[in-house]
Amino acid sequence: MKSSTLVLLILGTFAVGCAPDPKSGAGFTLPDGSAERGQQTFVQLQCHGCHTVSGLDLEQLDSSETQMIALGGVTANVKTYGDLVTSIINPSHRFAFGYSDEEIKTPAGESQMRLYNDEMTIAQLIDLVAFLQSRYEVEEYQPTPYVPYY
């Protein structure tokens, strides 16, 4: 009797540990957006005052005191819409690599990026994500050619 109770307790612990996190992005899907309208939103919200976009020449705004953060280009990982949405609506969630804290963070440790949550419509967000996704190119992994094995 004791061993069956122990087995049930262990199985119950595993079952609880496998429950989805209420904050999980699982099941979150945006409708398809328009990259063209997203580029218009990018310019309208003046994102190009702080960001450059790979393969795109936009008129730079007067941002002499701002560190330009590069978006797009070749990357080793797919930039999912979940990554991009989170970066837009919660810019302090994760910071860009290759920049010093002074360049991208406030003294309080938050992102210097302005919050657009009260300014941007959901449609604009969807289109902006479509635009940004279109500017990334995933680099195919090239394994090291070890001579004895190739």
Describe the protein's architecture and organization:
- The chain has a two-stranded parallel ribbon with strand order 1-2. The protein has a two-stranded parallel sheet with strand order 3-4.
- The protein is mainly α.
- It has helices at about 1-15, 35-45, 80-90, 100-105, 120-135, and strands spanning about 50-55, 70, 75, 135-140.
- Helix 3 (about 80-90) crosses helix 5 (about 120-135).
- The N and C termini lie far apart (about 60 Å).
Radius of gyration: 21 Å
Number of discrete helical segments: 5
Largest sheet: 2 strands, parallel
Which bin fits the share of residues in helices?
Answer: 25-40%
**What is the CA-CA span between the terminal residues?**
58 Å
Mean pLDDT across residues: 82
Low-confidence spans: pLDDT under 50, at least 5 residues? none
Secondary-structure element series: HHEEEHHHE
Q: What percentage of amino acids are in beta strands?
A: 5-15%
Lateral arrangement of strands in the main beta sheet: 1-2
Which key terms come to mind for this protein?
150 residues; mainly alpha; two-stranded parallel ribbon
